[in-house]
Specification:
Radius of gyration: 19 Å
Shape: globular
Bound molecules: flavin mononucleotide
CATH class: Alpha Beta
CATH topology: TIM Barrel
Distance between the termini: 22 Å
Number of helices: 10
Strand order of the largest sheet: 3-4-6-9-10-11-12-13
CATH architecture: Alpha-Beta Barrel
Structural class: alpha/beta
Length: about 350
């Protein structure tokens, strides 16, 4: 039996102990609307590290206050937020997992009620603490408030904010960073012709629409140095006529590879309301297409729940790693369980629990 799920992977100066990873998942668990991690984050991410994950990508973290989806999101625009993340990273490391963080700007999908814990949904009003959202153009996401089109100076400031957050990520101890350019958030909004109708050098042609993301990638690399892997999460298709397609994303992934990106985390959708043919492994074909046609490593995500399914994705060379989101919420010990299912002996079952594994 092959055990690719438990084969280490090296990207730049970082070796992941296995290829069963946890994707970013917003927790909306900041207590004081200050962007600072809490004990929830230590325990939540700690459990998955203890459960054997090769890497954990901490949830979408705002690079500025207005970059947050909700006021309960993590942020990384100040040093207090950096310091609050250090215990999260330290515990992940103590369990042998690699720690990554997703740096994000929510663009026109910012300033909304969190998914749970409040009565309302949709955009926050001013009296509820809402703020003016930013986007490439003034086109609103269905049902949300109209954004303001960003000036070139604001784009420059946002590039600098991503870079400063990347610096703080490394200072907090993270091993790698992921730039969020998927799910209809700011960088995806610039990439997609459905949300970007600008006529300056950030709109129009595919390379103009990619300019903002490539500037963020370059600025991030300048901060994190040559040894640190940089991932980019993309939505490989908008699932909509006139939107981004796999071919567009393959072209973009080639540019990202040329700019030193180490892995594409391949998701889909989120920029417009669309009918998505959701089912087990429904996005792996996009990870495969990008990997095959550009040679850049990919991670597959989306309704992956079973050890043999995960192994199959790696064995058929669709991706270099698999990300299990909701399955990790249901069972933070998924990697340990998968090792048992695949009959592979791992040496990182917690010693404290040895009586459970006799
Ligand atoms: C609770 C929750 C929060 C999420 N937050 C994020 C996020 O912060 N950033 C992101 O890129 N995707 C986010 N996602 C999407 C997941 O990373 C993943 O792509 C998606 O859930 C599909 O994988 P799954 O079927 O294994 O859950 C979130 C998903 C869930 C369930």
């Amino acid at each position: 039996m092959s055990h690719l799920l438990f084969e280490p992977l090296t990207l730049r100066g970082l070796t992941f102990r296995n290829r069963s990873w946890v994707p970013p998942m917003c927790q909306y668990s900041v207590d004081k609307q200050d962007g600072a991690a809490t004990q929830w984050h230590v325990v939540h991410y700690g459990a998955m590290a203890r459960g054997g994950a090769g890497a954990i990508i901490v949830e979408a973290t705002g690079v500025t206050p207005e970059a947050r989806i909700s006021a309960e999101d993590l942020g990384l625009w100040n040093d207090e937020q950096r310091d609050a993340l250090t215990p999260v990273v330290d515990f992940i490391h103590s369990q042998g997992s690699a720690a990554g963080i997703q740096l994000a700007h929510a663009g026109r999908k910012a300033s909304v009620h969190p998914e749970w814990g409040t009565d309302g949904d949709g955009s926050l009003t001013e009296s509820e603490g809402g703020w003016q959202t930013l986007a490439p153009s003034t086109i609103a996401f269905d049902g949300l408030a109209e954004p303001r089109a960003m000036s070139e100076a604001e784009i420059d400031e946002t590039v600098a904010a991503f870079a400063a957050s990347a610096r703080r990520s490394i200072d907090a101890g993270f091993d790698f960073v992921e730039i969020h350019a998927a799910h209809g958030y700011l960088l995806h909004e610039f990439l997609s012709p459905l949300s970007n109708t600008r006529t300056d050098s950030y709109g129009g042609s595919p390379d103009n629409r990619a300019r903002f993301l490539l500037e963020v990638v370059d600025a991030t690399r300048a901060e994190v140095g040559e040894d640190v892997p940089v991932f980019v999460r993309l939505s490989a298709t908008d699932w909509d006529e006139g939107g981004l397609s796999l071919d567009d994303t393959v072209e973009l992934s080639g540019w990202l590879k040329d700019h030193g990106v180490d892995l594409i985390d391949v998701s889909t959708g989120g920029n417009v309301m669309a009918t998505i043919p959701v089912g087990p492994g429904y996005q792996t074909t996009f990870a495969e297409g990008i990997r095959e046609r550009t040679g850049i490593p990919t991670a597959a995500v989306g309704l992956l729940t079973e050890p043999f399914q995960a192994e199959h994705i790696l064995a058929t060379e669709q991706a270099d790693a698999v990300l299990l989101g909701r399955e990790s919420l249901r069972d933070p010990n998924f990697p340990i369980r998968a090792a048992d299912a695949l009959r592979f002996e791992i040496d990182y079952k917690p010693a404290q629990y040895h009586r459970a594994y006799k």
